[in-house]
Amino acid sequence: MNDKKFDIEGPVVGSNIGTSGHAHVGDIHIGHIRDVSAVLRLLDELREDLNDAKAPTSTIEAVDDLRVEARKPKPSKEVTAHLMDKLADRGLGEQMKELAKAFDALF
Questions:
Q1: Who's near 26: CB < 8 A, 6+ residues apart?
Q2: CB-based contacts of 92: which residues, under 8 Å, 6+ apart?
Q3: CA–CA dist 104, 99 (Å, integer)
Q4: Which residues contact 28 (CB under 8 A, 6 or more apart)?
Q5: How far is 22 from 24, CA to CA, in rounded Å?
Q6: Distance from the Cα of residue 35 to its chain's centroid
Q7: pLDDT at 95 (0 to 100)
Q8: Where is mean pLDDT largest: 5-14, 48-57, 81-90?
Q9: Which residues pair with 22 in a beta bridge?
Q10: Taking 90 as the threshold, does the pLDDT of residue 64 lie above it?
């Protein structure tokens, strides 16, 4: 399924001006969508834990920045590594290991 291209005909969600009702999705595949969902779920759980623990704003902002990076079609390893390093010294341990594994699936 990873090698197939998908065509969507008819009304397309969002702007379809100039597409004549046809949109080409291209390289999006279900595995990638699942990987992004897993990362976003872990980030949401981490953010909840940080909010409950009244973590510093800079820590919560780093989690939010990771969320933005995860939603990009091609997340940057360098940006992700930098943000993960910012969180690594915050004592998050096991959650960071799970998050690192989930992000590895995006690259």
A1: 5, 6
A2: 46
A3: 9
A4: 6
A5: 7
A6: 8
A7: 81
A8: 48-57
A9: 9
A10: yes
* Number of Cβ within a 10 Å radius of residue 35: 18
Residues 6+ apart with CB under 8 A from 71: 36, 40
User: What pLDDT sits at residue 98?
Assistant: 86
- Looking at the DSSP bridge assignments, the partners of residue 7 are 24
The model carries a pTM of: 0.64
Residue with tokens 């690594």: 88
* Average of per-residue pLDDT values in the chain: 75
Residue with tokens 């990638």: 32
Residue 5 is predicted with a pLDDT of: 55
Give the integer Cα–Cα distance in Å for 75 and 46. 19
Tokens of 5: 């291209």
The amino acid occupying position 17 is: I
Q: Which two tokens stand for residue 38?
A: 């897993």
CB 55 within 8 A of CB 95: no
Q: At what angle do helices 94-104 and 57-70 cross, to 10 degrees?
A: 20
